[in-house]
């Protein structure tokens, strides 16, 4: 008898990657959910004996979903699959009843080991229902048709799905980029949490294609403070270039200095600058390392540059960025709610660089669609 599997993630790219990571011999029936609200309903319907649950999602996130599962005592086993790998996130979900926690991108061997350790998967190659490869092909065909929920229709051969697959849409490309940044964002959050000893609230990355002359307006929407400080760092590798900016509200500066516990050997402005540079280096470095691993490139970084302190946003954007024409702007709003601290990481890619990013994601995306 097939095991009902529920994969809950707001990214279609991530959902299909998760489905392809399951052991090939496992006899399963897969259902996809885009958020926790859908997931809870599917579990109530008996479609999720085993649930693979993301944390950062709209409508109902992973924490809220796990809380409902516990309150209603829903019959399912939950494995968290997330880019947020902070110890506090893992501890919180385990305390809510999750079995284990897997880091994105998924290590297939580790996943199989976890499933085997908890007795969820026996490793048997014998199945009485549809083979997982056929189930995956069925779901892949439906994903192309923009229907992510599994049904009882006859499986579609995988070769036929790929042969007849249309060109990947811009929406799918942006989804793949968002998931790539989601993983890199989690690495940066983990490093920052270790440095500061605080839990970092991670958002869903905001990805937009805009004209460079619209950037000031877009950044103003992100950060509405009249006075901010910002650090910039350029990066380049194999045709992929860009600029990363960390934007701080000036009202946060003193809170960050206190959190870092710097000795008071400098002026308040000097300490604020040191804190700004240190936090920026951690965030940008860890995020770019996460992107490098997924794109399989080695970025060369420029030295961090202070774009300005206590200035308006319009003066902080470099002339280089303003000349890019069309660009991709990816905004990540980090927060330490316990300390009333918030700052934004902005990743900017010129249009020609995005062509290379799409090309490097394309093979994985075709495999996952």
List the helices and strands and how they pair.
Blueprint: E1 3-8, H1 12-21, E2 28-33, H2 36-44, E3 50-53, H3 62-72, E4 77-82, H4 87-96, E5 100-103, H5 108-117, H6 132-144, H7 158-163, H8 170-196, E6 206-211, H9 215-222, E7 228-237, E8 240-249, H10 253-260, H11 268-295, E9 300-301, E10 305-311, H12 319-322, E11 326-336, E12 341-350, H13 351-368
Parallel strand pairs: 1-2, 1-3, 3-4, 4-5
Antiparallel strand pairs: 6-11, 7-8, 7-9, 7-10, 8-12, 11-12
Helix pairs in contact: 1-6, 1-13, 2-3, 8-11, 10-11
Characterize the structure shown.
- By secondary structure, the protein is of the alpha/beta class.
- It has 13 helices and twelve strands.
- The strands form two sheets. Strands 6, 7, 8, 9, 10, 11 and 12 form a seven-stranded antiparallel sheet that branches. A five-stranded parallel sheet has the order 2-1-3-4-5, sandwiched between helices.
- The longest helix has 28 residues, at 268-295.
- It is globular, with a radius of gyration of 22 Å.
- The chain starts with a strand and ends with a helix.
- The model is unreliable at 125-165 and 364-369 (pLDDT under 50).
